[in-house]
Amino acid sequence: MSYVEEVLALTEAKNPAQPEFIQAVKEVLTTLAPVIEANETLYRQNALLERMVEPDRQIIFRVPWTDDKGVSHVNRGFRVQFNNAIGPYKGGMRFHPSVNLSIIKFLGFEQIFKNSLTGLPIGGGKGGADFDPKGKSDAEILRFCQSFMAELYRHIGANVDVPAGDIGVGAREVGFMYGAYKKLTHLYEGVFTGKGLEYGGSLVRKQATGFGLVYLTEAMLNDHGDSFKGKRVAVSGSGNVAMYAAQKAVTLGAKVVTMSDSNGWIYDPNGLDIEYVRELKEIKRARISDYLIKYPNATYTETTSMDELRVWSVPCDIALPCATQNDIRKPHAEALVKNGCRCVGEGANMPSTLEAVEVFQNTKGLLFAPAKAANAGGVGTSALEMTQNSMRLSWTWDEVDEKLHAMMNNIYRNMADAAIKYNQKDNFVMGANIAGFEKVAAAMIAQGVQ
Ligand code: NDP
Ligand code: 2IT
């Protein structure tokens, strides 16, 4: 058995009920095979892979809170501090009823390599709760966040572990959690990113994941003599990442023809009004079905199962999955290819199953940018927020946007070059994994076995 096979078997045996985590480990380790084979003795001696797949620590805690009617509830809170070889643990918080240890571990594991790709000094971590913020009042969200922080505050810090947003956690939730941390610790420090602009947040952070996704995808297209201009783009989701990816794609001359939420999807082959989607989803917290109030000629289709083809059933040139994991499965990938899609940029984390990625990679001429690289602009800009907090100053919009743009161009170049180095030109899955892994591996070895 190869070293990779051994560690995969070990990971499966030790984590039997964690399918998402196993999926993420499989994707990374199998594509790293050439690097691992070239350094096998050193890596084995250091138990490097065994250490990489085992988080530094996993914190699981009870989060009790009381709703507006006076009824009490209990949720489960998580923070997985995966790896701090190259910087303090860094990664978002997800509040969604589907959250469990497997999901937080897959996200934390991915985050190690993504954060390394940004070129900035941030380690990997992730957290969240199986709490559903949908339909809750601001007062309920506040009580939940305060209860969550009553435990979490002791495990984090500006130089220890710096959380941010993810699904279900935006500026409101970050604000409430930051306020609770400040009160409990008596510290004013950059312990969260994605903060409001009035208290240490960075310009462009809100837009950064979506903008960064389009910057990287555009760099990949440009490198192959193409661009977003005149393209039909299918987007899944209508949250933070989806919204600003759609906005930037339109700025670059594309037409976004479809978007979605967990209830259904909208379609207009002439292009959607993204500003109206933003008004509905970001400002009014409404459902995407309300798009038809202003645009009755668009179509809305309800979703009853993720098995349905949904936004992946329409003709498009570029697909940007920006909702959640395993959104694109084999039949969805096949439908996209059949309908003319020739470029995929992953905005969400692990939005394509391993089988779907295989379909994309076996389609000649299809460009596929994996999540770790494509959505790294969010956490990359979080690291820029940390820098501004440390310096106690704020950069302008243009300064941050230029740094983000340069970061995404660099990530593209690094993953493309890593793929070329191992004779796998345009295999960006392999390129991104190798480029992200090498720095973390070297740092772990240099710091000794621990
Ligand atoms: P939001 O909560 O702002 O938006 C999530 C969107 O995806 C919503 O439209 C939501 O629909 C939809 N969605 C979520 N879960 C499901 C589900 N189980 N089934 C169907 N639709 C679903 O989150 P973000 O935009 O921040 O995150 C989207 C993705 O991007 C996630 O994979 C996240 O991990 C990733 N990501 C986020 C970054 C960030 O900076 N925020 C950075 C890098 C990656 P509904 O409203 O109905 O729930
Ligand atoms: O998945 C991600 O990279 C995020 N949710 C953003 C993490 C961060 O710390 O900004």
Strand content: 15-25%
The helix/strand order is HHHHHEEEHEHEHHEHEEHHEEHEHEHHHH
Rounded Rg: 21 Å
Give every kind of bound small molecule, once each.
Answer: NADPH dihydro-nicotinamide-adenine-dinucleotide phosphate, (2Z)-2-iminopentanedioic acid
Task: State the low-pLDDT regions, or none.
Answer: none
The N- and C-terminal alpha carbons lie at a distance of 26 Å
CATH T-level fold name of the largest domain: Rossmann fold
Describe this structure in words.
The chain has 450 residues and is α/β, with parallel strands linked by helices. It folds into 2 domains: 3-187, 3-Layer(aba) Sandwich (Rossmann fold), CATH 3.40.50.10860; 208-374, Rossmann fold (3-Layer(aba) Sandwich), CATH 3.40.50.720. The chain is 48% helix and 15% strand. The strands form 2 sheets. The chain has a 7-stranded mixed beta sheet with strand order 9-8-7-6-10-11-12, with helices on both faces. It is globular. The protein starts with a helix and ends with a helix. NADPH dihydro-nicotinamide-adenine-dinucleotide phosphate binds next to α10. NADPH dihydro-nicotinamide-adenine-dinucleotide phosphate (NDP) binds next to α10.
Give a brief rundown of this model.
This protein has 450 residues and is an alpha/beta fold. Helix content is 48%, strand content 15%.
Question: What key attributes describe this structure?
Answer:
450 residues; alpha/beta; Rossmann fold; 2 domains; seven-stranded mixed sheet; five-stranded mixed sheet; 18 helices; 12 strands; 48% helix; globular; binds NADPH dihydro-nicotinamide-adenine-dinucleotide phosphate; binds (2Z)-2-iminopentanedioic acid
